[in-house]
Every structure is written in C-alpha cells, then in structure tokens.
Amino acid sequence: MSNNPASPTTRLGLLVRIEARPEYTHEVEELLTGALALAQEETGTTVWFALRLGPTTFGIFDAFATEEDRGAHLQGKIAAVLMENAPKLLVEAPEILPVNVLAAKIN
Questions:
Q1: What percent of the chain is modeled with pLDDT above 90?
Q2: Is 55 helix (H, G, I), strand (E, B) or coil?
C-alpha cells in the first residue's frame, strides 16, 4: 500500500460531534445544510462536510492548510450560528476536536 499524505491544503482539521434534542433534529439538519453557504465563503476552509451520524447525532468535518485558517473558522460565522442556537437545539455543547489529517483523497 502506498503512502498518500494529506494535501498541503488539508493538513489540519476539526471533527465536531453534535447531539440534537430529539424534538429539534429537523432544525439542526436545516442549520447544518444552510451552513454550506457560509463554509463556501471561507477561503481558508478547504474541505467542509455536514454529516448525519444517527437519529439525533450530527457532525461536521472540515480541513485547513494552516492553524490560522482553523482558528479563523472557529471564530467564524458557522461557529457563531451553532453556538447561538446550541442552548435550544442541542443536548449539550458541541464536542470540537482538532485533528491532524494523515492522508486524504479529494477530487
């Protein structure tokens, strides 16, 4: 198996786990799908995925070239919207894990 290192634009990432209150799963799904437009505005965010992991569990994975880009994203519009709505929509605050991307295939 050959080594496929991460691209220079996807070396750093964030993995976010979001647990919706059961009565607000539709609203959380809409918030995440609507956040795509905000992610597209972020020049430093090179990869962005909103995920549904289970009936009430959602996630976000995004990638960045630099620590500055990752920090800007954490201080950006998506994080602000998510945190503003968290008390109503979520069981608990989102779990935000900084990650290092070891390898990636992106077309």
A1: 87
A2: coil
